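Re: your question from the hallway

Yes, I did run it. Sequences:
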Amino acid sequence: MQTISRLDALRNAVDGFKSGGKTLALVPTMGALHEGHLTLVREAKARADHVAVSIFVNPLQFAPGEDLDAYPRRLAQDAALLEAEGVDLLWAPTVDVMYPSGFATTVSVGGLDAVLCGAARPGHFDGVATVVGKLFNQVRPDIAVFGEKDWQQLAIIRRMARDLDLVAPHADAIVGVPTVREADGLAMSSRNQYLTAAQRAQAASLSRAMRHAIAQLQQGEVAGPVLAGLTAEIIAGGFASVDYADLRDAATLEAMDRLDGRAARLLVAARIGSARLIDNMPA
Ligand SMILES: Nc1ncnc2c1ncn2[C@@H]1O[C@H](COP(=O)(O)OP(=O)(O)OP(=O)(O)O)[C@@H](O)[C@H]1O
Ligand SMILES: CC(C)(CO)[C@@H](O)C(=O)[O-]
Ligand code: BAL
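Structure:
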């Protein structure tokens, strides 16, 4: 595996991997890798000749007061995990390489970024879209693989990739991988390590409460009372607050009053200890 942190070296490496018509997949991450990330890597390997993983804790997507400084960073350990998975290229730029002095451009995906995490974290998705747009231009992948755990992020990246012609214009260029969970149902996340042992045990209540709400929706109950009950159950499970608990059209993220035959998604963000955890499931 080549580990690269400079743009000129990246360009040469990418040219090499793409030569002879070989395909290249990109898995963008912020590091502190877990089994969820490694599942994305395996999916990328199954779909392309070569796999690049990026590790970059992107300051642009953290608001002041969020956990940019606390976010776990362990490049050497991550590199060993990726090497063992047979990854070809680790792209690990510094902040100066990604955002040279005077950097002034923002990519903004209208509409989809106004709700859910976009409402709770103003500017967050501009930061995500900007860095992912740059990563696509830097690595020039044929496909890119993301987790469904960040469902809204996936929708925004799909929109941006189509709108800006960033990857090949086929439907499967942006691949979504189902959320990988711990044995007790908690979605794997680098931020789970902010939890104390007691909070970690309580955090399992989130996915249980979501499954309960989905069963109620599938019996024809309307969303309002079900979501109010879900919020109460999450708080009773030990969470301090719920940023949102919403039933949405899976593609457009429009709010839904009840299940109506469209592909739907139940999405939640809730805070426990110093962590803000997100989860979503098909409804
Ligand atoms: N449990 C998971 N299952 C599947 N994909 C995941 C999972 N967790 C993260 N991913 C995906 O990995 C990619 C990189 O995510 P990131 O590095 O932010 O990890 P994370 O664990 O989501 O961390 P965070 O605590 O920031 O949410 C994203 O596409 C994300 O959706
Ligand atoms: C896509 C991403 C790597 C952009 O920084 C990040 O938002 C993430 O890890 O999900
Ligand atoms: N996986 C989402 C990245 C973030 O919360 O900033």
